Amino acid sequence: MTFETDTFDRWDLTPVINVSGTMTSIGASRVHPEVIQVVSNILGRFVSMDELQSRASGVIAKATGAEAGCVTGCSASAITQGVAAAITGCDLAAIEDLPDPGAHENRVVIQRAHMINYGAPVHQAIALAGAQVVPLGTSAQCETWHLRKALEQGCTAAVYVVSHHTVREGELPMNLFVSICHEYGVPVIADMASEYDLRGPIELGCDLAIYSGHKFLAGITSGIVAGRLDLVRATYLQHRGVGRTMKAGKESVAGAMAALELWALRDAAAVRASEQGIVKDWLFKLERVAGFECSLHEDWTGNPITRLKVVVDPEPAGLYAWELAERLASRSPKVILRDDLIEHGEFYLDPCNVDPEEAKLAASAIVEEVAEAKAKGNGLAVSWSEVKQQRVEGAVSWPTRQDA
Ligand SMILES: *Cc1c(COP(=O)(O)O)cnc(C)c1O
Fold first, then answer.
1. Does the C-beta of 209 come closer than 6 Å to ligand 1?
2. CA-CA distance, 354 to 242, in Å (whole number)?
3. Among 150, 140, 135, CA closest to 183
4. 304, 313 in Cβ contact below 8 A?
């Protein structure tokens, strides 16, 4: 057997042009070549994981301004292990007993507006640690008294999520949330998985801040935990407990360290200029498409990313936005749009994970699919409700009989 043939040919995989950003469902991000080098350098060797993680602590502390840090399997597992740390501290017996918290306090507060799904629900990641999730307020309103009332009843931790998925109308701002939690001696765990701001949450007083190594950082699959020394220590100790089922290997730890060091060295202005060039080219090509209303859109949570926003007027375009997304995803290469708001007839093109060549191919594919729908008159045929149901059917029928 030889593995010299191209991986995609060998297993008959369809290439993907990613204009959606950093989506874990299609492989998160293009891993930085130097991260690949570091990972391949460590994979064939042995290393003390305690020593490697203590070096990671230094790298994370430098990148975030925190006292300490450690690397987990991913951000979702970092949430579970960070919450577990708040419940058990360094009580080794309690660590082995989770998810049974025993006599330890286990209530964890989170604003309802932050109870998102990033592929799985955040409240499940909290509950996996043996915590009781205590939702605050309503979906678009959380007031100080909601938080105070819950804290008065006893809490072990509070989770604060920053994400384009949260409802930002009516949420408690991070600094106010942190200061109230601290009045009650309750640590705040900030889920910053896809946020570029590596220092803000620690500066604001968050006790732990969590980042994905495989999103904007362009590392391999990993979670990065930064924060207070005692909580980081207790987070790392969870590898003797619930963290074992979410194991971070030597490659994840070294990959995250390399990704953080490279992030500090990158020329952010040059990257931004090249991404803006791609978006301007998309705007130029797509604003001529009948039924498309194109504009530049700044990132929802303030990351320095400008995307192209396209609102599709179905009649002149000849198809619905979701039909376009489905058709693009069934081409080869697949073209994957950013589709968070597709049910509202809009989509976004994200320049973070495409090279200029792929960006051109993506724009041509969009123009072609719209032209074809119009020429054949086969658009405006599938409602959003039908697409939603088809997606459920697709999910529960994996793998198909032919695959198996
Ligand atoms: C992506 C994401 C996660 C999950 O991250 P993984 O590292 O893939 O587990 C958690 N929270 C938010 C806000 C995210 O965007």
1. no
2. 37
3. 150
4. no
The answer for residues whose C-beta is within 8 angstroms of residue 203's C-beta and 6 or more apart is 65
Mark the ranges of the chain whose per-residue pLDDT is less than 70. 1-2, 404
* Ligand 1 contact via 24 beta carbon (within 6 Å): yes
CB of residue 76 inside a 6 A radius of ligand 1: yes
pLDDT in tens, 255-277: 999 999 999 999 999 999 999 99
What is the rounded CA–CA span in Å between residue 174 and residue 333?
41
146-168 per-residue burial string, b: 16 or more CB within 10 A, e: under 16: bbeebbeeebbbbbbbbbbbbbe
Ligand 1 atom with the smallest distance to the CA of 76 is 9
pLDDT digits (tens, 9 = 90+) for 34-45: 999 999 999 999
Q: How many residues does the chain have?
A: 404
Q: The dihedral of CA 173, 178, 181, 183: what is its sign?
A: negative
Of residues 178, 157, 177, 163, the one with CA closest to residue 79: 157
Query: What pLDDT score does 1 carry?
Result: 57
Tokens 């408690």, residue located: 172
HSE (CB half, 13 Å, CA atoms) of 88? 33
- Of 49, 92, 98, 99, which is closest to residue 70 (Cα–Cα)? 49
Nearest ligand 1 atom to alpha carbon 223: 7
Q: Strands 334-337, 223-227: parallel, antiparallel or unpaired by DSSP?
A: unpaired
Q: Best substitution site from 191, 224, 245 to test ligand 1's pocket, by max atoms within 8 Å of Cβ? A: 191
**Cβ contacts of residue 54 below 8 Å, gap of 6+?**
none
What is the DSSP track for 276-311?
A: HHHHHHHHHHHTTSTTEEEEEEE-TT--S-EEEEEE
Distance 75 CA to ligand 1 centre (A): 5
Report whether residue 370 contacts ligand 1, using a CB cutoff of 6 Å.
no
**Residue 132, strand partner residues:** 107
Residue 335 CA to ligand 1 center (angstroms) comes to: 22
Residue nearest to atom 14 of ligand 1 (CA): 193
106 lines ligand 1 (CB under 6 A): no
What pLDDT does residue 402 have? 79
pLDDT digits (tens, 9 = 90+) for 213-232: 999 999 999 999 999 999 99
Q: Report the distance separating Cα 115 and Cα 213, nearest Å.
A: 22
